[in-house]
Amino acid sequence: MDARLMGLDGPLMSTLHHLVDLPDEVEKALSAPTRTYVRDARAMAKTPADVKELPGFYVFVVDMPELKPNEIKVQVEDDSVIVVSGERRRKEEEEEEKEEVKYLRMERRMGKFMRRFSLPENANVDVVSATYKDGVLTITVEKLPPPEPKKTKTIEVKVA
């Protein structure tokens, strides 16, 4: 049935129809990543790390210079992802001298950082350890023992 026959072709219906058909710019703005997401994505990309597989465990080595162990957070999410996060701050004496100091180049990144590492299925998330020495965080995750091979079952054939 045509909506015009029912008297629904007025300015109200035209406005509602226009609102339902969002312009492409509005649709893109609504689906754009948030500023926090972009900041965290950059922080993840700028935190260098190595991942090694050894016979009995996995090792994650993450560079984190000038941090204290209590400024680093290591978590296991959903029994399948290791998350390393924290925040690097300027030293207090540098903040006091801020007015006197003029930086010519500032390459050391300050602020929050985060890295996510997906764990393989054979990682034992119950046995995870983290150590921090000389600006390097080392996370060790033990592997689960390989499953025992199934024994072959022989079935006796009977004469009918």
What is the averaged pLDDT score? 77
Shape annotation: flat
Strand % is 25-35%
Q: In whole angstroms, how far apart are the ends?
A: 74 Å
Low-confidence stretches: none
Order of helices and strands: HHHEEEEHEEE
CATH architecture: Sandwich
| Strand neighbour order, sheet with most strands | 1-2-7-6
Instruction: Give the total of domains.
Output: 1
What is the percent of helical residues? 10-25%
The whole-angstrom Rg is 29 Å
Number of strands: 7
Query: Within the CATH hierarchy, at the fold level, what is the topology?
Result: Immunoglobulin-like
What's the level 1 CATH class? Mainly Beta
Structure classification: alpha+beta
Biggest sheet record: 4 strands, antiparallel
- Helix tally equals 4
What does this structure look like?
- Keywords: Cytoplasm, Stress response.
- The chain is an alpha+beta fold and 160 residues long.
- The protein has a single domain, classed as Immunoglobulin-like (Sandwich), CATH 2.60.40.
- Helices cover 21% and strands 33% of the residues.
- The chain has 4 helices and 7 strands, in the order αααββββαβββ.
- It has helices spanning 11-20, 24-31, 35-45, 92-96; strands at 49-53, 57-63, 72-77, 81-88, 111-118, 123-133, 136-143.
- A 4-stranded antiparallel beta sheet has the order 1-2-7-6, with no helix packed on it. A 3-stranded antiparallel beta sheet has the order 3-4-5.
- The model has no long low-confidence stretch (mean pLDDT 77).
